Amino acid sequence: MRPRAVPYLLALPAWLWLGVFFVLPLCGMLSVSLMTGDLLSGFTQTFHLGTYAEAVQRYRVQLLRSLLYGGSATLVCLVIGYPVAYWIAFHAGRSRGGYLLLLLLPFFVSFVLRTVAWQFVLADDGVVLGTLKDAGLLPEGARVLNSAPAVVFGLAYAFLPFMVLPIYAVLDRMDRRLVEAARDLYAGRAAAFLRVVLPYSLPGVSAGVLMTFVPASSDYVNAAVLGGPGTTMIGNVIQTQFLVNNAYPTAAALTFTLMAVLLLGILGYALAAGTERMAGGRG
Amino acid sequence: MEPRPSAALALARGLARARIGRRGALALPALAGAAAVLGGCSIPARERPAVDPGAYWADKRSNGRLTFANWPLYMDPDRTPLARFTERTGIRVDYRETIHDTPSFFGQIQPRLAGGHSAGCDLMVLTNGRELSTLLRLGYLAPLDHGLLPAFTAHGGESYRHAPYDPGNAYCLPYASGITGIAYDPERVGREITAIADLWDPAFSGRVGMMRDAPEIANFGLLLNGVAPAESAPADWDAAADRLREQRDAGIVRGYYEQDYLRPLTSGDVWLSMAWSGDVFQQNLEEGTRLRFVIPEEGATIWTDNMVIPITAENPLDAITLMDFLYEPETAAGLTEYIAYVSPVPEARELIRERADRADGAEAARLAELAASPLVFPTEEDYARLHSYVTPPAGEDQAFTSRFLAITQE
Q1: Does B233 lie at the interface with A, CB-CB under 8 angstroms?
Q2: Smallest CA–CA separation between B69 and chain A, in Å?
């Protein structure tokens, strides 16, 4: 056997897996998105592109809302996640592994279950709001559940580790002498952070933003469990169109639209952020 | 637990680089080829011609076994009725709790039935609605021979013989029914709730729970407008949708719920909500809550879970024998004691009362309450106020559903 073929053969299982379970269904979905018909008379291939225009026109609010919620959740994750990653990398010392485990611990419980648990925590007379109301810090009618902030909060909670881990990974392997050098050159603590640590960590931030924004924008569990009237995300629409309304072409068209929008967004972001930086290169 | 930094970065790198190399150049035509192959495909419906019951049942023999697909918690854990059935007839039942929601189950069985294959069960329980109607229209269900249903003929309740989706029980026999009405917490609401219009009262702004299911909220919008759902036309659907939109835009609705409406109702987030009768009964019994359930003045709807036999069933004769067995009053009473939903066998009530007299302690109280409950055994007056669901004509399903999805999914 020629050694050149070996890597390809080794990669074969992965290619097969991707082909059978990703590429093929994707092609099937693409095909369905161009069909017309209904469940009773069957769906036939007519290459009807109009479904895309109709679906996007009808659900543009939910599409934009998904990007808005996903973006807001990513921002919240960044604001909360960066200090966490920084602290674990620079100040947690030997117990870093322990803190990372704590960060990941909630992931040992089912995603849906964790989201449902927030319903109990955030109930109007629940542990948090009830206590604050009793203490007179919140008006009697205040509520959080079934609102846009609740959905964004749920998304941020669910995807926080995806932001923390890449930033932590970059900061952890940073040469501490770089900071010492900055201090030697009369940089204050703030200047050392802003001019040395922060630029160094940007590749991690870029990766974290991507890994948070993409799943957060396409999520549907949080909107279904923590949302209310007027917080439907595009994921919920797709699910309903597939399962409840049996409008397979509409659902498939929305799926592809969402994929295209996210891919274009990522591409634009990557161009703006610079691929070399994202790749973690330093020159 | 140590994370792999390079994995995240490699992913980002891969995503960020749009280069088409030699392999990419090969993959693109392959992709296009696959798409072209699939482009030729379609998803056929494959309607089956209607079958005459006589012709269908003529060559059917008992095989001494059957598979029964049902919803969770819809029979006692010991499967007492099935054990008695096997004792009597020698037919073994493979009981499976495989149905968790109608659309997903429909998604599983529809392609198999379209291909003429077994649905994986000989008897299944489906709620009236779009999926059941579709199966009926496509001819995927076995017609029932009433000569094989002596117990149903003798004991089946009169109200269960005229379903608009299946007049004369040609294909479906009810397993249990439930009422969609209003449940409320009397302490929080502070007054008696009697009407659907109360769900539109601005005094309860942000405290009203509505259902997410399109037919369910459509029914309430229609009843509020004084229209019987089963006789409604598209213009009525529009008017109902307008009322529901007003209610949402006025900020009265707290959320659109599925089966999870009980949690906000018991925690106090929601004060009054659309609700299913059996849920409220069980909730009060098990959790000691004091929720009240009312059939509103404007009327409410009754839904029915139906036993049906897929036309490709391998053991249809065993399945229809079990269907009939469940209509014997003794069996029906036992079933109702556990599930607390409306029984299609009115005689079950008297039997439960007798058992309550014979039992003692908590069990006696529970059975007595069950037999007395209008939620489990509605009175004739109650039945008069209970409506059937909207059954959109063929081809108008999506138009109907979309109108109401636009309200719950805005």
Answers
A1: no
A2: 20
How confident is the model over B181-208, as a mean pLDDT? 96
Query: What is the predicted ipTM?
Result: 0.85
Domain that holds residue B234: 178-299+386-408
Of B3, B17, B42, the CB nearest to A43: B42
SS3 sequence of chain B: CCCCHHHHHHHHHHHHCCCCCHHHHHHHHHHHHHHHHHHCCCECCCCCCCCCHHHHHHCCCCCCEEEEECCCCCCCCCCHHHHHHHHHHCCEEEEECCCCCHHHHHHHHHHHHHCCCCCCCCEEEEECCHHHHHHHHHCCECCCCHHHCHHHHHHCCHHHCCCCCCHHHCCCEEEEEEEEEEEECHHHHCCCCCCHHHHHCHHHCCCEEEECCHHHHHHHHHHHCCCCHHHCCHHHHHHHHHHHHHHHHCCCEEEEECHHHHHHHHHCCCCEEEEEHHHHHHHHHHHCCCCEEECCCCCEEEEEEEEECECCCCCHHHHHHHHHHCCCHHHHHHHHHHHCCECCCCCHHHHHHHHHHHCCHHHHHHHHHHHHCCCCCCCHHHHHCEECCCCCCCCCHHHHHHHHHHHHCC
Domain for residue A13, yes or no? no
| Contacting B residues, span 98-127, partner chain A, CB-CB under 8 Å | 103-104, 107, 110
B268 shares a domain with B235? yes
Mutate to test the interface with B, among A46, A122, A244, A276 (most CBs of B within 10 A): A244
Total domain count, chain A: 1
- With respect to residue A137, please indicate whether it lies within any of the assigned structural domains: yes
Please give the pLDDT value at position B115.
87
**Global pTM value:** 0.85
In this predicted model, what pLDDT tens digit does every residue of B271-312 receive, in sequence order? 999 999 888 888 887 788 899 999 999 999 999 999 999 999
Nearest by CB: A270 against B15, B38, B45: B15
- List of chain A residues with pLDDT < 70: 1-2, 274-283
Structure confidence by residue, pLDDT tens digits, B353-378: 999 999 988 889 889 989 998 888 98
Assess whether B236 and B343 both reside in one domain. no
Do B280 and B393 share a domain, yes or no? yes
Residue B25 in domain: no
